[in-house]
Structures are given as structure tokens and as C-alpha cells.
Design brief:
Order of helices and strands: HH
Helix content: over 70%
Radius of gyration: 13 Å
Shape: elongated
Length: about 55
């Protein structure tokens, strides 16, 4: 279980660090909203997978 948490946090950080430069450089609100929705979907999926009893 600790490995799943660590891997999930690393995945979220890698995704955010990958897309933040694009948002900052383009300064497009629509792009930022779409990326925030994607990150939120990833966070929900991570939360659901951590709550499941499957290992």
C-alpha cells in the first residue's frame, strides 16, 4: 500500500510538472481549465484505486 501511494503521488507530480509550462507559456484560460479537469480526473482515479481492496 505505501508503494501505491508513493507511485500515485509521483504520477500526479509528473503530470502537473509536464503541463504547467504549457499553461504558463500560452496563457490560455480554456487550456488551463481542460488541464485542471484532467488533473482532477487523475486525482479521483487515484483516490478510488487507493480505496479499493484489490492488491
Amino acid at each position: 500500500m505505501p508503494f501505491k501511494i508513493f507511485a500515485g503521488v509521483v504520477a500526479v507530480l509528473l503530470l502537473v510538472s509536464f503541463v504547467v509550462p504549457y499553461v504558463l507559456k500560452m496563457k490560455d484560460i480554456a487550456l488551463a481549465v481542460v488541464i485542471m479537469i484532467g488533473v482532477a480526473m487523475m486525482a479521483v482515479d487515484l483516490w478510488q484505486s487507493l480505496k479499493s481492496k484489490e492488491d
